[in-house]
Predict the structure of Thioredoxin 1.
Amino acid sequence: MAYLDNDQNPAALKKYNPSGIPAFYLFKNGQAVSYRIGYYTAAQIKEWLRSNGVA
């Protein structure tokens, strides 16, 4: 997990154009393969990661 400040990283904001905040992106080989927008519990994040093949 990483925190990215949109004000400090406008290029990333432009590239990924999240429709809301917070935004969670899962990357594989440098490409965003899945994302979620909104607030989630730790259990929900773990399930999302598991369902995308992240142990």
